């Protein structure tokens, strides 16, 4: 192509002419990609979330979520067993992601950082979004700090706790499902000493447990004995659970299990994975914890023993009838780092992502995976074929940890056929609502508890384990409780009661 230049006298400079010529040349040769220029840069969002499965979710599904939400996701999946340590390290080094998941049990570790301004207050922004604006105010307030909202919650029932056990072992020994503490003890004893698997070997024990006094067996058994849920208010006094006779009775019961070999002898140092493995390979016949673990436990157990049969029991009667501890209706929270999120515009973009995940197309993808591969649809409902169960476990279920308000999201399609034990677990979780033991301090404030509660509680956890293992007697345990009181426990009580008395009437 020939380019003719005008003279300087006509008003064109040589530099301008050269620039014009280059532009024309590049345009004619395709040197400028107008389509690329017009493509906006996707919003990058970093996330840290716990991984409850051996591997992360399907990259193909994550890419589809990115496409639907117009984001680029950088998700750090941390194995659940080390998640608390990893999250705490990120907290202390101020290296948290844009959105970091904080477990309910770890929230105490974060509250001081919240008060120091390390995280965005998101409450004022929620009404700007169609889905986030509909979040349950009661649950938001359960997780509030000084009345302000800092986190988006993942949802859970009030109590999913129960007893998962080998039904085929019960049947072989002619035992009924336990319905009392004494019957539960008898089952554990029979599973240990009466050859429940019929192999002629002394190679089984009753209960598999782990180094967790909350989500392991201890707290659930403790609630069967009628122990308060963390705290009890009696008149104008606040009483810690471990100051009650019911807590002492629970420790005595657990020590009896330990001394008689009805529980794995290394439970005090056992991880959840090892605890599960005991059940899966048929070393133990009872697992006490979240009933939602039953389906996956059963599936993995069947791979080892195709004749195995698993069932769930939720009603275990104790001195006060049926009792089970409850938890606030959030399993955990996503909080938003001020260091990772530079300004309000970026914060709104991150909130927009979470709001978008609650829409029908994204939420159903995260819950059920791809239609045709992981599920099928029938009459506006989701059908979960048994043959695709393993695919859902390995590719989809990990994404449930990213779902906000997943139990109450109206955009989620109903399931036409839940896996049998999943459906049973959900039904029994609903039944638990009839006899909950609630924590009266959920909506109360104690600065000392937030600052030092974890440190002080370690006194009690160490003492509880040592009592069960036979290293402490009653007097020794009560001495540790007194150490807790003088080290800050009494101050926590005082602050909680001040908060309780200052509540609005009826609050």
Structural overview:
With 507 residues, the protein is α/β, with parallel strands linked by helices. The protein has four domains: 11-38, no CATH class; 45-157 and 329-412, 3-Layer(aba) Sandwich (D-Maltodextrin-Binding Protein, domain 2); 160-221 and 241-325 and 413-439, D-Maltodextrin-Binding Protein, domain 2, CATH 3.40.190; 444-507. The protein is built from 18 helices and 18 strands. It has helices spanning 14-28, 34-38, 59-69, 80-92, 107-115, 137-142, 167-173, 181-193, 218-224, 245-259, 272-280, 294-304, 344-357, 360-368, 389-395, 420-432, 447-468, 474-501; strands spanning 43-51, 71-79, 99-103, 151-155, 161-166, 205-208, 231-234, 237-240, 284-290, 310-313, 317-318, 321-322, 324-325, 330-336, 376-378, 381-383, 415-417, 436-437. Strands 2-1-3-14-4 form a five-stranded mixed beta sheet. The chain has a four-stranded mixed beta sheet with strand order 6-9-5-10. Strands 15-16-17 form a three-stranded mixed beta sheet, with no helix packed on it. Strand 15 and strand 16 (381-383) form a beta hairpin. The longest helix has 28 residues, at 474-501. Mean pLDDT is 91; it is low at 1-38.
Task: Write a compact overview of the structure shown.
By secondary structure, the chain is an alpha/beta fold. 42% of the residues lie in helices and 16% in strands.
Q: If you compute it from the alpha carbons, what radius of gyration comes out, rounded to the nearest whole angstrom?
A: 28 Å
CA(first)-CA(last) distance: 82 Å
CATH superfamily of the largest domain: Periplasmic binding protein-like II
Weakly predicted, low-confidence segments:
1-38
| Overall mean pLDDT | 91
Task: Kindly report the spatial arrangement of strands forming the biggest sheet.
Answer: 2-1-3-14-4
Shape: globular
CATH class of the largest domain: Alpha Beta
Number of strands: 18
CATH topology of the largest domain: D-Maltodextrin-Binding Protein, domain 2
The assigned CATH architecture of the largest domain is: 3-Layer(aba) Sandwich
Strand content: 15-25%
Count of runs of 4 or more consecutive helical residues:
18
Instruction: Briefly note the structural class of the backbone.
Output: alpha/beta
Major β-sheet profile: 5 strands, mixed
- Portion of residues within helices: 40-55%
What's the domain count?
Answer: 4
């Amino acid at each position: 192509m020939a380019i003719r230049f005008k003279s300087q006298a006509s008003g064109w400079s040589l530099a301008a002419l050269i620039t014009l010529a280059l532009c024309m040349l590049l345009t004619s040769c395709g040197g400028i990609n107008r389509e690329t220029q017009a493509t906006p840069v996707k919003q990058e969002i970093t996330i840290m979330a716990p991984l409850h499965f051996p591997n992360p979710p399907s990259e193909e599904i994550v890419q589809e979520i990115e496409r639907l939400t117009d984001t680029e996701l950088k998700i750090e999946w941390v194995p659940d067993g080390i998640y608390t340590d990893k999250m705490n390290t990120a907290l202390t080094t101020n290296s948290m992601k844009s959105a970091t998941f904080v477990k309910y049990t770890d929230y105490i570790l974060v509250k001081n950082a919240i008060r120091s301004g390390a995280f965005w207050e998101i409450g004022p922004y929620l009404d700007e979004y169609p889905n986030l604006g509909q979040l349950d105010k009661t649950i938001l307030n359960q997780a509030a700090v000084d009345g302000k909202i800092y986190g988006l919650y993942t949802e859970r029932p009030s109590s999913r706790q129960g007893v998962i056990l080998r039904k085929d072992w019960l049947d072989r020994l002619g035992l009924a499902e336990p319905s009392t503490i004494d019957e539960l003890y008898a089952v554990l004893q029979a599973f240990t000493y009466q050859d429940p698997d019929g192999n002629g070997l002394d190679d089984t024990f009753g209960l598999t447990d782990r180094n967790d006094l909350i989500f392991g067996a201890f707290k659930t058994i403790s609630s069967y004995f009628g122990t308060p849920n963390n705290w009890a208010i009696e008149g104008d006094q606040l009483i810690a659970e471990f100051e009650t006779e019911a807590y002492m009775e629970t420790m005595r019961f657990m020590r009896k299990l330990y001394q008689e070999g009805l529980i794995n002898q290394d439970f005090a140092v056992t991880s959840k994975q090892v605890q599960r493995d005991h059940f899966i390979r048929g070393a133990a016949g009872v697992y006490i914890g979240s009933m939602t673990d039953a389906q996956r436990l059963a599936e993995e157990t069947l791979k080892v023993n195709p004749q195995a049969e698993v069932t769930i029991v939720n009603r275990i009667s104790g001195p006060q009838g049926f009792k089970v501890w409850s938890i606030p209706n959030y399993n955990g929270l996503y909080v938003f780092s001020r260091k990772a999120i530079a300004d309000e515009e970026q914060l709104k973009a991150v909130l927009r992502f979470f709001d978008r995940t609650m829409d029908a197309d994204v939420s159903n993808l995260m819950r059920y995976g791809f239609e045709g591969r992981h599920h099928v649809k029938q009459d506006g409902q989701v059908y979960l074929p048994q043959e695709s169960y393993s695919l859902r476990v390995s590719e989809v279920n990990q994404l449930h940890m990213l779902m906000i308000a997943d139990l109450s999201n109206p955009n989620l399609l109903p399931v036409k056929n839940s896996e049998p034990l999943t459906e049973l677990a959900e039904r029994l979780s609903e039944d638990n609502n009839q006899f909950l033991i609630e924590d009266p301090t959920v909506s109360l404030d104690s600065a000392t508890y937030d600052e030092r509660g974890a440190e002080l509680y370690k006194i009690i956890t160490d003492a509880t384990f040592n009592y069960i293992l036979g290293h402490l007697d009653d007097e020794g345990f009560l001495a540790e409780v007194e150490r807790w009181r003088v080290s800050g426990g009494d101050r926590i009580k005082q602050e909680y009661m001040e908060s309780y008395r200052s509540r609005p009437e009826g609050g």
